[in-house]
Every structure is written in C-alpha cells, then in structure tokens.
Automatic annotation (TrEMBL):
This is TetR/AcrR family transcriptional regulator. Gene3D superfamilies: Tetracycline Repressor, domain 2. Keywords: DNA-binding. Residues 8-68 form the HTH tetR-type domain. It comes from Paenibacillus xylanilyticus. One of its GO terms (molecular function) is DNA binding. The keyword DNA-binding applies. InterPro entries: Homeodomain-like_sf, HTH-type_Tx_Regulator, HTH_TetR. Residues 31-50 bind DNA.
Amino acid sequence: MARNKYPEQTVQQILSVAAQLFTDKGYEKTSIQDILEALGMSKGAIYHHFKSKEEILNAVMEQQFEYSARMLDQLVIHTTAATAREKLIQILEHVLSDPQAHSLDRVLQTQIKNPLFIVRGIQQAVQMDAPVIAAMMKEGVADGSISTADPEAAAEVFMMLVNIWINPAIFGRSIAATKQRLIFLQTLMKTLGADIVNDELIEQILNHHEKIGAFVTAESNGEGTEGAFD
C-alpha cells in the first residue's frame, strides 16, 4: 500500500465523518463498519490512526474541547461591554448559544457514565476554562464590577459546579431540581463577590439541557442518580 502523503487530512476526515455518524445514529449504534462505508476507506487505513471506536470518540471529544477553548479566547478578545462583569455574562451567554460548541452534546451525553469522561470534563473546566474566567474576574475587580477576594478559586468553583454539579444527565435530575441548584449557584456566586449568574443565564442553561434531553422526570429521579458512575 502506498504511504499516505497527507495523514493529518485523513485523520480529520475520519473524525468529521465519525462525529456526524455519532450525532445522527448515536455512538453505541455506530460501528466501525459504518464509518468505513461512509469514508470509503479500508479497515487498515482507519486502524493505522485509531485502534478502536473509543479512540475515535476520544479524539472527537478532544477536538471539541480545543474548539471551545479557542472560541472562549476569541470571545474575550472581541466582546465589548461597559464592565468586565457584563462582558463575562455576555461571553457565557454566547458560549451557551454557539451551535458548533454544542454540536456533539447528545453524543457526549452517552458517555456520562464513563469516569474517564467525567475526569476529562473536570480537567477541561479547571485547567483550560477557569483561568480565562479568572482573568476576566480580575478585570472586574479592577473596574469595581466584581468584588471577589480570590478570582482563581471563584472561577474554578463556578466552572466545576456549572459543568459537573449542575449537569442533570450526570445525577439524573429533573428540570425543577436543576433550576433549584442553579438558583443556589446564583446566590453562591453573589456571596463570593462574582455576581455573574443572572436569571437570563439560568433560563438559557435550562433550555440547553432540555434541548438535548438531559432531564429526567421527577418520578425517575432517584434511578438516574444511583447509576451515574456505574
């Protein structure tokens, strides 16, 4: 077999096609054979780059995390507002409404019981996203719109809670239970001197989770919580 002169293009092609299939059919219902047929490649061509479907999913997830990080950096540069607090709220609202940032949410939700996925999400929130949020909080301290004594810790707490604790799919929560926790988060951030969770953001977060089918009914709430990390 001739050597592939453009391995990066091949990898990107595999990831793009796989991501679309995962979205359309679901991760569990998509087979390596499905990916092969959609690509028109041999099995050897795919296995040269990825040893399993799980490796492909991990690469797709990593690419999505990288996109989100780049988007956040660009929003910080290009978003303008009267205060850093208002700028931060605008950025959070934009992140929630960006279609590409959430194009794989239904796929990622199927991995919610995977401990490695949860750990990767925590690492992304604390190591990649929180420092950007903290930098904006420091700007808010400087202009008087934010008063937290520890922007780094406040940003990490916010990102951990909004990405993990608030996520209804992880704990099997209903929309009412999730809203209750969002209101608590709103109060907590105010207490920490970082009033960045307004009512509009709460509704936007709830609408987002409802759109991807993350909520459970109140009757099945207990079952979802028990099996979150099985």
